[in-house]
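Input.
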Amino acid sequence: MKWIRRLLLVVLILAVGFGAVMVGAALRPERPVGFQRAQATDASGQPFAVGIWYPTQARTWPTTWLGLSLMDVAADAPVAGRGLPLVVFSHGNSGGPGSHADLALALASAGYIVAAPMHSGDNYMDQSAAGTVAWLGGRTRQLHATIDYMLQRWPGHAQLNPARIGAFGFSAGGLTVLTAAGAQPDLRLIAKHCAETPEAICALLRAGNSPLLDPEQAKKGNSYVSDPRIKAAVVAAPGLSFTLGPGALTAVRVPVQLWSGEQDTVVSYATNTKRVREALGAAAEFHSVPGAGHFSFLAPCGPLAPPLLCTDQGQFDRKAFHRGMNASVVAFFNKAIR
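Output.
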């Protein structure tokens, strides 16, 4: 019996130690932040999940999980404030609402409400829509539907200011935000680009026998409706930007903050971010991040996160980078929509 008691003691010690590590690694805002899980519906009536962060006066606890991130928040607490600005997020391919949880916490701590949808068919649980003809246009429509939900059906909608709305997008979400702000990608360009350039997204499309590699099929997806409610946009490592041909960004007239990692081998600067930067010119506030790879823009990793998404090159300090980037994003939105 002694060995059983000793084994139980060891298990208890390990469990307490692991719990302490997890709590110590929890994402924490500077000021109290509330968090809710909600469900919106797209134009076809299909539901999709939305993570919502907001300022609160309630006490927070490091007990709320979102994906593999533990957050120190007040779950379902009352919203504090009136006339609050809204920022909607669009995650990258196979991501989720928690992909940029630290930025959401920073914005909510600064007085913003953040709504991050889980893109249907393009998230870490379900990739059924990725690479289909309707894939990219569907993402943009889900962003519109998220804004509709927040302004009309969310219980705290009366505390929002509908004239102060911004958007943040990463990777495929960067293109989603740009199309919501007025960009008009041409999906027919994918076939030619992928035939000439060994880019990561091209390998994924080929592996899935994507119809987007057929120009005649791809053109059926060239249907995008901009959302004039979005008054400012932050875009990080925008994927598929090689679909933005001449004049594709002419209708983007809102302020844009643009980010690129100098070591990004997934979404190359030359064929993606550079096109956006050159098209927008002085209208874009550009940030190039030395040492940053593609996944460096994801939230700093906790103990359970997969190494593929958490391994940065060299001595790159993701936590330090995110502290600086989050402050810059907050300052940009403060200037653009506050």
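The domain at 34-119+128-337 is CATH 3.40.50.1820 (Rossmann fold).
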